[in-house]
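Anyone? Bumping this.
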Amino acid sequence: MVQSTDFWTSSMTARETCSDGAFQTLFTDPYSPQKFDRRLERVVPVHAVQKQVELPVSETRDWLVIKAESLLEAETVAAGVVVLTYDWADAHDSMHKRTSTGSLLLDFVPGRVARADNRHAWLEKFYLDAARATKAADIYPLVSGVKGLFSKKAYKDVDDILLSAPLGKFSVLSLLTLVRTTYPAKSKLGNWSACLERVRALLKEKGEDPAKLLRGLD
Amino acid sequence: MQLKTSPAEPFENVNVVGLALKSDPENPRQTHLAILYKFHEEPKLMHLAWNRDFRARQNPSDSYLWLDLGEYFSDYDREIICAHVQNVADANDPTDIGYGFDCSGSYFDPETGKFNSSFSAVGLTCATFVIEVFASCGYKLVDLNSWPMKNKEAIKWQRKMLDMLVTLPDVTQEFIERQTRNVGNRRYLPEQVAASSQGEIPVPRGRLLLLSKEMRDQVVRHCKSKSTSHP
């Protein structure tokens, strides 16, 4: 999964300014629940890339949080630049039309590529609609998907979801569904408590009452 | 509290999820409880009708009175419970769940929504089925231990049910033995479980007695009136 520190280099936060100075990527620690969804990122054009790796496009697509074919310009993809997109582009807004989806270039170790989890197409689809989820039918893909993973004892997969889910783009109902659906297995999920805290902070930001909405989960 | 009667107050008016109560025309004191939910536009009932007779998407009939969940449940709670109910409907087969006198709050696996198949001798009533489904999605309706054990009325009813269970062709010896041992277990009445949805949960039994009696009286009256109008 994208957030694994194994795949980031120590120079990551130094990449605030690209070589031409025209663009910058301001990146806050993805491990900090408070900052994760507040980072400011801007597109880095191909010519500003300091380091390129040769990977086929299919590899790029494999990243869970990348929609390479839809988010990046054709020339960028063709160049085979590894770009990790730390934000979800909304397929329904104008961001979809542009390449400025908040990309971060990073040093990359091809031998340590984490293969994306293409088994979870339902999750990617849910993420696209998570901001607008207000009804039971909207959240059902998440509920049934997570429970399906639990049925297969795929706790690691669920734990990765808790870590990498773009919570900043979630509706209140989506946030609550994620923590409530995963709550029964929280003792097996190392990221559950951190996710709960992120959800608590986001609910507060949205003007909700976290104590009321999260009751029973502490 | 006035229970709602269809068609005057149609089932589709349920605020996402609620409960439905009815009584047996041949024995009006015998009440039955179901979960009323609206996952799409059409309201459905989910309930345990009898041994190995789990009904996940039954159309509600006017024999039922119904109620929304109380204000303790937020709009978000209702949607989440409804999604979990739908999952229970999808995850379990009609013959998965036995009828009996068990209740622990953990017979549905909360991770998967499946009735735990390792408990083949376990049986639920219509009321404990509702308790277990809600518990499996994190909402404990009642304080289970506040009900009395070895209640005389409960034992009488459990023996009567057991007599019916043992005549069924598909029950195992293990099942009969377990349910025989269960006679004397706590009995949670359908109307008590329905009443528990109206306040802060989990509710102890003592706080439910008045409201549940009120509900029972309404259900019995409704049943008798239906019988009179449709002899």
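Late reply, but here is one note on the structure posted above: Chain B touches chain A at residues 16, 39-40, 74, 76, 78-80, 82-84, 86-87, 90-91, 109-114, 136-140 (CB under 8 Å).
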